[in-house]
Automatic annotation (TrEMBL):
<keyword id="KW-0804">Transcription</keyword>
<feature type="DNA-binding region" description="H-T-H motif">
    <location>
        <begin position="37"/>
        <end position="56"/>
    </location>
</feature>
<dbReference type="InterPro" id="IPR036271">
    <property type="entry name" value="Tet_transcr_reg_TetR-rel_C_sf"/>
</dbReference>
<feature type="domain" description="HTH tetR-type">
    <location>
        <begin position="14"/>
        <end position="74"/>
    </location>
</feature>
<dbReference type="InterPro" id="IPR009057">
    <property type="entry name" value="Homeodomain-like_sf"/>
</dbReference>
<dbReference type="Pfam" id="PF00440">
    <property type="entry name" value="TetR_N"/>
</dbReference>
<keyword id="KW-0238">DNA-binding</keyword>
<keyword id="KW-0805">Transcription regulation</keyword>
<dbReference type="InterPro" id="IPR001647">
    <property type="entry name" value="HTH_TetR"/>
</dbReference>
<protein>
    <submittedName>
        <fullName>TetR/AcrR family transcriptional regulator</fullName>
    </submittedName>
</protein>
């Protein structure tokens, strides 16, 4: 049996850029873009503040990298669902389950995607970020699943699914009530079975 201290020591620590990006994703979710500073990110990543500028010249570069990280995470999660489930209905159900997998965090801070989109959309137009991609990905994927179910209204159903989740996430966060998300998930499950 391997010594656990050797196993922990053998696992390399992520590089500085990876740590900075992970810290940025977490802090942007918990504190918002406006309140998060590069110094906050450096401290959370345990990286000297001056080193941040080697990887990211501005806060906007950090935000863009965080958006890209979310896009990769969403793409990976949807690909994993595709690989694991055979039917479109079971894939859609897996997406609903994914929505509610971390209801406590969503209740505390809001949906990481929805809150980021909402906050960045309020910035001046010349500071546009590709946040729409964060919503387009799951909507397009869900539309493909609904179309595979033979639904001519697949796009509308995909929008309805995302709106139900994002609305529930907002209410859950605002009212600090995780049962809003779990109740919404039950209703979405029933809705999927009746389509």
């Amino acid at each position: 049996m391997a010594d656990s201290t050797q196993t922990a020591a053998a696992t390399p620590r992520p590089g500085k850029r990876q740590r900075l990006l992970a810290a940025a994703v977490e802090l942007l979710h918990q504190q918002g873009v406006q309140r998060t500073t590069l110094a906050d990110i450096a401290q959370a990543a345990e990286v000297p503040p001056g080193n941040v500028y080697y990887y990211f010249k501005t806060k906007d570069e950090v935000v863009t990298a965080a958006i890209d990280a979310h896009v990769q995470q969403i793409s990976g999660a949807l690909a994993a669902i595709d690989a694991r489930f055979d039917s479109p209905r079971s894939r859609l159900q897996a997406l609903v389950d994914l929505f509610t997998a971390d209801s406590e965090t969503v209740t505390q801070y809001g949906c990481p995607i929805g809150t980021l989109c909402s906050e960045l959309d309020k910035r001046p137009a010349h500071e546009a970020f590709p946040v729409a991609d964060l919503m387009h990905l799951p909507i397009a994927w869900a539309e493909t699943q609904f179309r595979a179910l033979g639904r001519a209204d697949a796009h509308d159903l995909a929008l309805e699914l995302m709106a139900a989740y994002e609305g529930s996430a907002l209410l859950s966060n605002t009212l600090r009530d995780p049962t809003i998300l779990t109740t919404a998930a039950r209703r979405l499950t029933h809705w999927l079975t009746t389509l």
